[in-house]
Amino acid sequence: VAKNAGEPEFHQAVKEFLETVRPVVEKHEEQYRKLALLERLCEPERQIRFRVPWVDDNGQVQVNTGYRVQFNSAIGPYKGGLRLHPSVYFGIIKFLGFEQIFKNSLTGLPIGGGKGGSDFDPKGKSDNEVMRFCQSFMTELYKHIGADTDVPAGDIGTGAREIGFMYGQYKRITGLYEGVLTGKGLTYGGSLARTEATGYGLLYFTEELLKINNIDIAGKTAVVSGSGNVAIYAIQKANQLGVKVLTCSDSTGWIYDPDGVDVTTLQLVKEQHRARLTEYKELRPNSVYHEGRADGGVWGVKADIALPCATQNELNLDDAKALVANGVIAVCEGANMPTTLDATEYLKEQGVIFGPAKAANAGGVATSALEMSQNSERLSWTFEEVDAKLKQIMINIVHNIDAAAKEYGKEGDYAAGANIAGFLKVADAMIAQGVV
Ligand code: NDP
Question: Which residues form the Glutamate/phenylalanine/leucine/valine/L-tryptophan dehydrogenase C-terminal domain (predicted)?
């Protein structure tokens, strides 16, 4: 704890992990202790922090801080997104990087865990300002990444525009046309279905998780938070599966749409106009806009399924109580660590089916790994091919975490199952590779 002082998000992620893998650790206690396996696992292999100076449209120099945490490379090159948000500091990047290790392991693909980003806020910046920031950021980051060493991707605030600017600068500096970033545009090495992958994967996961509990997803209602990349494609796939989504949100407010959230309108507002949800309300007069988290926020709306898709710790104990009071059946996490620890415990106690982020949102990074494969073979697969692989990966994850939970006496505890299944593979690889 002393080593990571002032990093509550990192503590939260590690605590949740260690508590749930206890049965595995007890089984191998002597060996793990001798090898300091858990100590090594919780210590990033490398942490990089750097200055990112750039010039705004008024000619004023601005200075941000850049981060990359290369957490664990036991099973493959570091892989994980870049978050651009004013709240970014080591505590956030380390919690995300730590979770990424086990998520990536669960995909069954050869990728290690990493994460990065900056406290830069793309909101309200011109395209030119975003480009100058991204170029400056990559001018340092390029020294630490590569197609076979560390392959960053998007996350909050980093979408197709930012990845494009960063890729251009990497190529310009190194002269290499290689798959060093994922989430690229389709004209320069991107994969079909990557944009949709996290949201679609979340719904494939939720559908299968309900199925093994003998529940049919079709005809259910859902509440979704967020209105970014994950939320938009979660809502689209939910609609395709016959689920009516009643809400979405951003950092300034939330929408209740009794007719079901309209994805085309949401895409217009968010992807094209980069606007606020007040514009959604104007375009859909039947919907209701609430400021901030007024009237209980999205979790106060009655629905069968809750899909948090915005950010960490956005669903607290009071929210969990409101969901349970409204008869929620399942909570599946699209965002990373959106549910607080006490809320997670409460949901599990109340018998709510809980799909943890590491498993439920792994479709994004899994498809990023498929993008890496396509880049390596210099081929592009069709949308249907990638989507079918994604769906199969999510189905496999559900069965693996279910089996791991059962094997270690935690039947129905999918958070424990995800941590255990993800951990076993990484632990095995770390032990095999000796003390490194
Ligand atoms: P986007 O930037 O596209 O969207 C984020 C959404 O969440 C926006 O609606 C944003 O509102 C809202 N949001 C962000 N921060 C806050 C906050 N502090 N309070 C309230 N609302 C907030 O990001 P993504 O959709 O890509 O990511 C969402 C979550 O999913 C994150 O936890 C991310 O780590 C996780 N994730 C993403 C993957 C991906 O492939 N993109 C893969 C796996 C996980 P506003 O625009 O107003 O800020």
Answer: 191-434
